[in-house]
Amino acid sequence: MPNVDNYDKVVMRLAPYPSGALHIGNARMVILNDEYIKKYDGELILFFDDTIGSSQLLREQNPEKAKYVLPESYDLIKEGLEWLDVTYSKIYYKSDRLQHYYEYCESLIKENMAYICFCSAKDFKENYINQKKECPHRNHTIQRNLEEWDRMLGGSYRETEAVVRLKTGMDHKDPALRDQIIMRISEAAHPRVGTKYLVWPMLEFSWAIDDYLIGVTHILRGSDLVKEDYIEDFIWNHFNWKKAQFLHYGRINFPDMKLSKTSARNKIQKGEFDGWEDPRTWSLQSLKKRGIRPEALRATLLDLGMSLSGITFSVNWLYSKNQNIIDEISDRYFYVENPVKVEVKNVPFKEKIAEPLLLPTKAEKGTRKIKVESEEGTISIYISQKDATNLKETKIIRLKDLININIDKIDLQSDHITANYESTELNREYPIIQWVPEKHNIPVKILKPDGTILNGLGEVNLKNIPMNKTIQFERYGFVNPIRLENGELFCYFTH
RNA sequence: GCUUCUGUAGUGUAGUUCGGCCAAGCAUAUGAGGCUCUCACCCUUAUGACCCGGGUUCAAAUCCCGGCAGAAGCACCA
Fold first, then answer.
1. How far is CA A150 from CA A109, A143, A145, A153, A458, in A?
2. Residue A3 contacts strand B, CB under 7 A
3. Which of A195, A300, A326, A372 has the fewest CB atoms inside 10 Å of its own CB, making it the most exposed?
4. Does A293 fall in a domain?
């Protein structure tokens, strides 16, 4: 990190916009900040970037697209940070600090660095930005601008009728930086301060003020915000303030994941998603529910580093890191999806207890017991549909830790298979599959990351497992048990 | 279109500051083999990259120039 020595102490800030729970993409910003703070023994500030968001007009005309503060997200964000094990020294709210922005905005007007503009957005872009011309309002006197500023604050103008523009220069070579708006009017209500304020700052302006006031030394932001550096720097230069350092990281694309707090919010409101824990939100809350370890997410994000190039994120990186952690602590159980019944005849015992290891890599953890009983020399068990479709008549397979059976007849139409007892000893020639007794088992539902729910049966020992501790269904994958209700186990699929 | 940034194996990253130790490391993915009463884990092994073209130099992934490709910004969003 550059220029650490220019400052007594490294101070950085997390600046989430509270429009929903933090998701896997936001976590990169959080983790990188946290790692730098730890490395340089600095201070981390949580600064809710809760300005007003979209105007009242947009909220009415296009509520789907509108961006606004969601009251519950303040807590959702804190919860996510806690899960990530990120601590901060203090909390600020932008919505508490409007007076600061007003004060410095007025200074800029007084010093002829800003003016009140009455152009519409379209007009300004087409006639002035694109043609590098100054709009008529730009040359109003300071006195006039101050009067109009008072009228803006006093409510004489409605939304979109007046804005404050910074005089960065209409001939600036970068069209993105020509006389940017720094303050605008919003009639929308804010969850924390209601309609107390009518005039709200734009992101870059508010940060120019706050980063200075709260003493931030290093600012980490995505490459989508590089132009904001210019505005902050412009204002710091003008006030002759000590500057913070900017650091950037590139954008990540998340194919097959819709990573948008706004979009998640809409789907939750419509009832399409089951709250912020729905795996399709990819929120930190949902990852926790799935049994993803925060250390795995941290390591994955850290692997990406500060690279400026656009990255296509592969969720397998996360799964792989997570598996390294949970594989050696997740107990194993039998689970059969879309069960198909198998009747095994001519078994030479009345009852037999299979004793598979809870965790093969740690045999000292012991075994679990699965009992099967025969009636008139026949036992009934279930296997998964997937395994059933791979069976062939007269072929021998092994029911893991139990017996070998010789397939007799396969009738997948009626989900019924018959077989004959073959032998008991392990023989590696035979394919090994998992099974569940017909008499003692437990229904299991699994919620997949795409929102689908799958049904199956699990071994009876699942009735006595702790919730929220990942387990592995052998030859299937890892799941996180969420609740045992009405004799049914409900799990989130991990990976 | 204008502005800025970035280009190392399928994917991501290390190395680029101060050229040589990089015929390029690591992770993940994939193939093969081993271990195992899971097609998990673990072990062994294989595959696979410096965007292109010039230039400087004894020497370039690293410096310079020119292409090309990708990303971001050009909102009264953050």
1. 11, 11, 9, 5, 70
2. no
3. A195
4. no
